[in-house]
Amino acid sequence: xxxxxxxxxxxxxxxxxxxxxxxxxxxxxxxxxxxxxxxxxxxxxxxxxxxxxxxxxxxxxxxxxxxxxxxxxxxxxxxxxxxxxxxxxxxxxxxxxxxxxxxxxxxxxxxxxxxxxxxxxxxxxxxxxxxxxxxxxxxxxxxxxxxxxxxxxxxxxxxxxxxxxxxxxxxxxxxxxxxxxxxxxxxxxxxxxxxxxxxxxxxxxxxxxxxxxxxxxxxxxxxxxxxxxxxxxxxxxxxxxxxxxxxxxxxxxxxxxxxxxxxxxxxxxxxxxxxxxxxxxxxxxxxxxxxxxxxxxxxxxxxxxxxxxxxxxxxxxxxxxxxxxxxxxxxxxxxxxxxxxxxxxxxxxxxxxxxxxxxxxxxxxxxxxxxxxxxxxxxxx
Length: 381
Known about the structure:
Elements: E1 16-17, H1 28-42, H2 49-67, E2 74-77, H3 80-90, E3 98-102, H4 108-120, E4 123-127, H5 135-143, E5 151-157, H6 169-178, E6 182-186, H7 198-201, E7 205-209, E8 221-225, E9 242-245, E10 253-258, H8 275-289, H9 291-309, E11 327-329, H10 339-345, E12 348-349, E13 351-353, E14 356-359, H11 367-380
Parallel strand pairs: 1-12, 3-4, 3-5, 5-6, 6-7
Antiparallel strand pairs: 2-8, 7-8, 9-10, 11-14, 13-14
């Protein structure tokens, strides 16, 4: 189990920040990378093409390492919704088919398909949250439902953002392939914390951002695209997506053929000298600590929380169906109004999600934070 890394962060001792699933604090090393980037942008004559190319390569490699991918299969993008929009352009969804999503999943892997379903002539099927919290079983049942329209795509978060339900991706991928469908994974709450190997899983699309679990800035995300789809047309038409468009030589647009690999899907203005290095440093820290050690620590902390909440009247998803790093509390009679704000006044920071209270510790949390939450919760809830 990883030791507490609180010293790597700028978090006062009286603050129990248990909300990594919303925003993560920036480690000191990531803050320093940001300051260095700002200083570099303040004197832009020091920024060279070689430096920018090195930053892009470093970020691609860092992202690839977290998910077991090759760097050339990673595109630099700004958000999950951007990546899903790319998928909407390059993945063929036949008329008369269905796209499967999770009930009350985050908007990013859902809205793209809802927007285009009427024009595309397909339907979006939402799998209702199961009473027993087992999203995997519910998905497998929906995939195999007799008499249903042909399944074209499963577009899901691998950890449900609101209730912390963990999807068995291997089981879903096996069922999806047997049905002749494609798989898109929003790995926002997965990459860096839980093991992920895209070679074994073989999704068509997998996306994750940096501002939550992998300790990076807002506005940076990474898009894995299976090679079978890498000849598609990108969302934006940029010089960096083409083989030879250069402002330094003539002719300017010498070769408009698309580049090989996922680079053609890079966002416009990808060369952000401040945030790109910050993202790389955060991901490299996570890789250095290792998913097994991180997951063990967060599972231990949430175990302490669950034990301390026993008999309090809240509902917890069964341990076998929930992610080790997200603990979501249900309230049979409804959550007390103002509870989240009252906790925040006591420097206990958690999040309200669809009527539940979501707790999401990270590597900077310890037993003191757990005890502070439990004491405040007992006093207020």
